[in-house]
Amino acid sequence: MTTLPRPAVTLTADDARRITLRAQGFLGTPDRRAGVRGVLRHLGAVQLDTISVLARSHELVPYARLGAVGRKTVEAAYWNPASVGVSPARPHAFEYWSHAACILPVEEWPHFAFRRRAYRNRPHWNHQLPDGAYDQVVKQLRAEGPLTATELGGAKKTNDWWDWSGTKVAVERALMYGEVVCVERRGWKRVYDLAERAIPDALLHDELDDTECLRRLVRLAGESLGVGTRADIADYHRLKGEQVDTVIADSGLVPVEVEGWSRPAWADPAALAAPPRGRHRTTLLSPFDSLIWERARTERIFGFTHRLEAYVPKPKRVYGYFAMPVLAGGRLVGRVDPAREGRTLVAKQVTLDGPKAVPAVAQALIEAAAWVDCTDVRVERVDAPELRKPLAGELARVLA
Which is one Pfam family of this protein (predicted)? Predict the structure, then answer.
């Protein structure tokens, strides 16, 4: 059994909450000069998802931290290659499996070598790979340059979402192995290129062993969380608990005790160096935002139960299809299930944590509406009927 070092620092639950908010970019003045790329580097991973309501999740994440950054600016920041002083131009980011399918800073390419090796050694797959398909995909990309699966020969055999063609199976296998990279999304389709063209040579050939990879990812997770338990840290890049155990002692994170937490925790020493202060963001959060990735952690830190209900049968939904938590004053104060009708942002269902949450929810709705080019906000349902009129009044006051 591993003997854990005795924590030298004890944090209150509020300390841990504020440290988390600062680490995630919600407390203090954001570095607007670094922009979207700065957010990506700071978080270490931004999750992708097919659902688009107000916008896709990878757009909502920088919006939540920076405010109304242009949506085209977001896409360009992720995918437009760096060309100044670099020949040939290289992307700033790549897409790979981290917490889920995520956009990752390109400089972290070497630290996912352990996962690429694991995929190569995987004994079985859900999709069969036809003979010769893998080599054909690599050959075609080498000859023709970046291509979508459709351009490579077809993504699906039928209209069923899961029924991949042999070409799609092959190119996704090559992506997992690291021979191919997703260099951008075009109409939500992955655009694939050879890693040897897309990844800078110094990163491409920097093959770290598993221990070095895990040590780096554990440290990155700790920095992005500010403070977290073993389970929190493992979940960030979807590591196994035993993988965390092997490296956490020399990851650079320090053991701490958090009042009210039943398990040991570790913190980024930089997060402990100065008390977290500054302006709190008021915003809608994507259900896939890294602040609220892990349900047990969200409940522990914010006393807030978060669950994406998009995949729950409609009669069983409690808060709505794409309920977005509302962050204000460092607390999660409600939820909004949004939709768009023309230039109107529709709050199909609103849940408020009491009357004090009304101004914050109204502000978050109006700012989000402006960001997606809506000129009006309409509320359809408020879970607490007595708060419907105050919310409508606050919206009218601000919109006037």
Answer: AlkZ-like
